[in-house]
UniProtKB/TrEMBL annotation:
Alphabetic keyword roster: ATP-binding, DNA damage, DNA repair, DNA-binding, Hydrolase, Metal-binding, Nucleotide-binding, Stress response, Zinc, Zinc-finger
PROSITE patterns the UniProt entry points to: RECA_2
Region annotation Lon-protease-like: where it falls in the sequence: 356-486
Pfam families: AAA_25, ChlI, Zn_ribbon_LapB
Motif RadA KNRFG motif, residue range(s) on this chain: 257-261
Family (UniProt): Belongs to the RecA family. RadA subfamily.
Every RecA family profile domain range: 71-220
SUPFAM superfamilies registered for this protein in UniProt: P-loop containing nucleoside triphosphate hydrolases, Ribosomal protein S5 domain 2-like
InterPro entries xref list: AAA+_ATPase, DNA_repair_RadA, P-loop_NTPase, RecA_ATP-bd, Ribosomal_Su5_D2-typ_SF, Ribsml_uS5_D2-typ_fold_subgr, Rubredoxin_2
Protein name (Swiss-Prot/TrEMBL): DNA repair protein RadA
HAMAP family (alphabetical): RadA_bact (MF_01498)
């Protein structure tokens, strides 16, 4: 009998699991099929069939119309930009995972959220597993987040964390971060696949049972993905990504997953020495201030989620001493810029083969959608010819390899934002219907060559109008002088 049991155990199929993301497979492979990591697949236990039997239910099933929805209403965090991304606020029992690169401002933003919630008399528990309580206290003092209803605990053990939840009974729980908390019941160090899965599952279970909105801070890998098993993103209800360049104060918070609201919204924040401040109207950050038009600049309108942002593209073209000219970019997609430069030379007749070309954005904004192609092309052409674009004009359109200007989505929303900031003319793709946008004149262009001619004609009209106004002013002065002499 013992020999038979040993033989059956030996014959049982075994599974293999990735130590990085938790992906499982029936046979060993050298590279994970989920996260593409090499040498991370290890042998696990034998695969066994399900043995779970029916058990008692926690609550009887009832008609969906009888379910109380008031307990699931979102409660605002008092930070408008974050509420916009969340879909109105934090839902009781919801678990939010906030991820981002080190130093991007995750902890500062959550400390501000904890302070706002505590100011209305709701108990908030902030559990820090990366810093000491004194370090967090100093930051809270600097950003003005001290409050008697804000409780702080420095713990790295999951059991102690749950004990603090029992003692404080908070209305909001913040864990910073999920990768640095470990359970004594699970083998492995903090941050491992098993540890992260157990910590997230335990915190999620407590949040659902007690209706506590919970925010987990998550680390990211060098590729920008959330560290830990992929199951972590499935366990939580909302996944927020905090983005920002270290050289810029602008921070963007966008929803990657949201069970309670939209996933196409973005929140804008300004991270400074005194904390993080929301930016309800960030468009002015991405425009430079010139008293007169400057060659090599063009303005476009990008859509971040459903929010239009007016941004400026700058280009500099200079003769190159190199056999292979340089192509440097900042804030724009380098591959798309290279394509636009090729189309501009081939279809627009702008010589670039022996010149260094630099393209950048203003204010640290990153423009990745194809809508900015036309603005990039016009900025480069303006720099080559050393002629500024007319004042008050924007450019919208995707440039194809044949030189055509393709339609873009959300044209009315983009033009309305441009008109609000004082722009009065817009180059738009042919066939676009920008009706209903007062204060702005749409100039349809079918291709890049037509857009370049339209800019030249508009500049000539502007120069003629300026010359006419100057002549009228001169004649008026002469008339006054003559009248005065008489």
């Amino acid at each position: 009998m013992a020999t038979s049991k040993a033989a059956s155990a030996k014959a049982a199929p075994r599974s293999y699991r990735c130590a990085e993301c938790g992906w499982t497979t029936a046979k060993w492979v050298g590279r994970c099929g989920e996260c593409q990591a090499w040498g991370s697949v290890e042998e696990g236990g034998p695969v066994t069939g399900p043995r779970t039997a029916a058990g008692p239910v926690t609550a009887a099933a009832r008609p969906i119309a009888d379910v109380d929805v008031e307990t699931a209403r979102a409660k605002p965090t008092r930070i408008g930009e974050l509420d916009r991304v969340l879909g109105g606020g934090l839902v009781p029992g919801a678990v939010v995972l906030m991820a981002g690169e080190p130093g991007v401002g995750k902890s500062t933003l959550l400390l501000e959220v904890a302070s706002k919630v505590a100011r209305i008399g709701s108990r908030t528990l902030y559990v820090t597993a990366e810093e000491s309580a004194g370090q967090v206290r100093l930051r809270a003092e600097r950003v003005g987040a001290l409050n008697e209803h804000l409780f702080l605990a420095a713990e790295t053990d999951l059991g102690a964390l749950l004990g603090h939840v029992d003692a404080v009974r908070p209305s909001l729980l913040i864990v910073d971060s999920v990768q640095t908390v470990a359970s004594a019941q699970i083998d492995g160090s903090a941050g491992g696949v098993g540890q992260v899965r157990e910590v997230a599952a335990a915190v999620t279970r407590v949040a659902k049972e007690r209706g506590i909105p919970t925010v987990l801070v998550g680390h990211v890998t060098k590729d920008g993905g959330i560290a830990g098993p992929r199951a972590l993103e499935h366990l939580v209800d909302v996944v927020l990504q905090v983005e920002g360049d270290r050289s810029s104060r602008l921070r963007l918070v966008r929803a990657v997953k949201n069970r309670y609201g939209p996933t196409d919204e973005v929140g804008c924040f300004d991270l400074g020495e005194s904390g993080i401040v929301e930016l309800p109207d960030p468009s002015g950050l991405f425009l430079s201030r010139h008293s007169f038009p400057v060659p090599g600049t063009a303005v476009t309108v990008a859509l971040e989620g459903r929010r239009p942002l007016v941004a400026e593209v700058q280009a500099l073209v200079a003769p190159s001493p190199l056999s292979t000219p340089r192509r440097a970019t900042s804030g724009v997609d380098a591959s798309r810029v290279a394509m636009v430069l090729a189309v501009l030379e081939r279809r627009g007749g702008v010589r670039l083969r022996d010149a260094d070309t630099y393209v950048a954005t203003v204010g640290g904004v990153r423009l990745v959608e194809p809508t900015t192609d036309l603005a990039v092309a016009l900025a480069v052409a303006s720099s080559v010819r050393d002629l500024p674009l007319p004042k008050g004009i924007i450019a919208l359109g995707e440039v194809g390899l044949a030189g055509e200007v393709r339609p873009v989505a959300g044209i009315s929303r983009r033009l309305s934002e441009a008109a609000r900031l004082g722009f009065n003319r817009a180059l738009v793709p042919l066939g676009t219907d920008p009706a209903g946008v007062p204060g702005i004149v749409a100039i349809p262009v079918p291709d890049l060559a037509t857009a370049l001619r339209a800019i030249a004609n508009t500049a000539e009209e502007t120069d003629r109008a300026a010359a006419a106004r100057a002549a009228e002013e001169t004649e008026a002065r002469l008339h006054l002088i003559t009248t005065g002499d008489r």
